[in-house]
Amino acid sequence: xxxxxxxxxxxxxxxxxxxxxxxxxxxxxxxxxxxxxxxxxxxxxxxxxxxxxxxxxxxxxxxxxxxxxxxxxxxxxxxxxxxxxxxxxxxxxxxxxxxxxxxxxxxxxxxxxxxxxxxxxxxxxxxxxxxxxxxxxxxxxxxxxxxxxxxxxxxxxxxxxxxxxxxxxxxxxxxxxxxxxxxxxxxxxxxxxxxxxxxxxxxxxxxxxxxxxxxxxxxxxxxxxxxxxxxxxxxxxxx
Length: 239
Description:
Blueprint: H1 6-38, H2 43-48, E1 52-58, H3 61-68, E2 74-82, H4 91-94, E3 102-109, H5 116-125, E4 134-135, E5 138-139, E6 145-149, H6 152-167, E7 179-182, E8 186-188, H7 196-199, H8 204-220, H9 226-237
Parallel strand pairs: 6-7
Antiparallel strand pairs: 1-3, 1-6, 2-3, 2-8, 4-5
């Protein structure tokens, strides 16, 4: 029987241990790479970071919401309250006119599709910016025409667009009374105010007040209408 030679075995053991150590390091490195990969933002997340927000008040927020939900490039519209002195106001409280809030819509949009200046033009032409604290039969400070700007760029853009409207006499000799103020706290309105026109299209207010505004938007801003672009896309698909 041959004698067990320890000196002959030791080099083999060392080689095996070295191989196992290298394999373990590669596995750990692979896992780290996988974890790092999962932290990379998706394309959707990166796109969302380029979205901008505008806050407009042009009378009843149901009207503003219905119009901007049809604008190509708008990704979300939330009806709410801004510009008052009371925290977490209710619709009932705002309707008294004593909280100082205006009914507004906070609109998220993609500036690569529709610019802030175009958004302002739609806003100004979809309500009457020449009537103080009044839109149709809706009367009170809560129905005032107002742009709550989010940054200095929006403030300058708003002033420039309004100045251009005045110069071109878009509203004739009437004075534009649209308020331009920095955005204070924004409070989303109650759930039943959200998507109001879409959920209640047959109601009298929707038919007589909102529908004409939508029709005007589709006529004046057809190039910025998501509905019009969808129709054009369908026509192109037909053989």
